Amino acid sequence: MKYDFDKVCERHNTNSLKYDFATEMGIPSDALPFWIADMDFETPEEIRAALHKRIDHGIFGYTDPKGTYFDAIRNWCRTQYGWEVKGENYVLACSVVFALCALIRALTKEGDGVIVCQPVYYPFEESIRKNNRKLIVSELVFENGGYRVDYKDFERKIVENNVKLFILCNPHNPVGRVWQKEELVALGNICMKHNVFVISDEIHADFVYAGYKHTVFPTAKKEFEDMCAVCTAPTKTFNLAGLHIANIYLKNEKARSAFKAELDRVGYCEPNVMGLVACEAAYRYGAEWLGELKEYLAGNLALVRETLKNSKIKLIEPQGTYLAWLDCRALGLTDSELRGFMLEKAKLWLDDGYIFGKGGSGFQRLNLAYPRSVLKSALDKLLSALKAI
Fold first, then answer.
1. Beta bridge partners of 351
2. What 3-state class would DSSP assign to 123?
3. 386 partner at 20 to 30 Å CA-CA among 82, 100, 120, 308?
4. Straight-line distance from the first to the last Cα atom of the chain, in angstroms, rounded to the nearest whole number
5. Are 289 and 46 in contact (CB under 8 A)?
6. CA gap 28, 26 in Å, rounded
7. How far apart are CA 354 and CA 206, in angstroms?
8. CA distance 82 to 96
9. Cβ of 9: how many Cβ atoms within 10 Å?
């Protein structure tokens, strides 16, 4: 490979949320952190070079994107997803989660129902509850080692609760589903029938494994273009989360204006100058790095698969994302006991499955985006702990 993903980078003492806040979070200091979804790989040199060039200019005043920024996004969407976009339909935000909260406030009223399919990325629930909206859950169905949507339950919950908004995770975090076009059409048709607006969080869109294809929600059916917001960012793909940049696509002019008005109310205007530079450079020069990264991640996934194949912990095969969803129910532990086992016995800090919703009870989420030697060390710890049960 041209890029070195085996390089182990020291991240302690960099104010890293992953590495430097265990004590504050009540986590044993010797537990290896595999929880939060950022990567332990260096951002591509091409992006760092663009950042250095901007730093060398020496002035960091108020900044807004010009046409070249949207040209880079447009080309990325075309080449990666076959999606034709227009720059004027984008609104920039500091993060996808920030955008979710702003969209919830812009497009619904307090007390309105907002539906999600759990287990799902836990900030969805937090964003709904903390903005005084009603959380409605349609549980994903787990069968034959994978997950699917219960469309009858999904529609029934929408009707019974007068749901106004659906937050879709596409690809799905944590269960790793890459929703097929026909699945998105089925969900979208239900939402269109009941006048439910869709927020599609597609931040993991660039991580799809061989044999699967990401479908951007509004491309599943033309009629969906005017009833959705698509939340994208380069932050997961290129390990840029700390630079705070997200690109929110809204073709619906009324919804776009409402979103902009909400941003005005909270005082958000010009984006982070370094985030703009990094995003444009990523989408212009990052494709080769991403291709090699996905190949490396496939190797990491294979290591997890092989390591756990004869254990009581079962890998739920991901179709996308760089996260592994682990079924630990055969251990017969409560969620509290499972957390204690991982932290105290295996010395691993993972994300507990129950925080993603009731259906996540008995599961753990493992970040795969590490140098293979680090991942192997973690898996060896896990196997040793399992043998001691």
1. 365
2. helix
3. 120
4. 40
5. yes
6. 7
7. 26
8. 22
9. 12
The amino acid at 261: A
> pLDDT value at position 389?
87
Q: Is the peptide bond before 174 cis (omega within 30 degrees of 0)?
A: yes
Tell me: the pLDDT tens digits for 16-34? 999 999 999 999 999 999 9
Is 140 in contact with 119 (CB distance < 8 Å)? yes
The answer to whether the beta carbons of residues 166 and 115 sit under 8 Å apart is yes
**% the chain with pLDDT above 70:** 100
Q: What is the pLDDT of residue 249?
A: 98
In this predicted structure, the answer to whether residue 93 has a pLDDT above a threshold of 90 is yes
Q: How many CB atoms lie within 10 A of CB 218?
A: 23
Q: What is the DSSP secondary-structure string of 163-208?
A: EEEEEEESS-TTT-----HHHHHHHHHHHHHTT-EEEEE-TTTT-B
CA gap 5, 296 in Å, rounded = 7
Q: Which two tokens stand for residue 309?
A: 């194949």
Q: Where are the domains of the chain?
A: 32-44+287-387, 59-285
What local confidence, expressed as pLDDT, does residue 186 receive? 98
- Classify domain 32-44+287-387 at the CATH class level: alpha beta
Phi, psi dihedrals of residue 335, rounded to the nearest 5° = -60, -40
Question: Confidence band (pLDDT; 50, 70, 90) for 74?
Answer: very high
Cα gap 314→379, rounded to integer Å: 13
Digit-coded pLDDT (tens) for 35-68? 999 999 999 999 999 999 999 999 999 999 999 9
Q: How far apart (Å, rounded) are the C-alpha atoms in residues 367 and 359?
A: 19
CATH of domain 59-285: 3.40.640.10
DSSP 345: I
Characterize 239-253 residue by residue with b for buried, 16 or more Cβ atoms within 10 angstroms of its Cβ, and e for exposed: bbbebbbbbbbbbbe
The whole-number pLDDT of residue 304 equals 98
**Residue 4 token pair:** 């070195």
Tell me the two tokens of residue 234: 């380069």
Tens-digit pLDDT profile for residues 153-197: 999 999 999 999 999 999 999 999 999 999 999 999 999 999 999
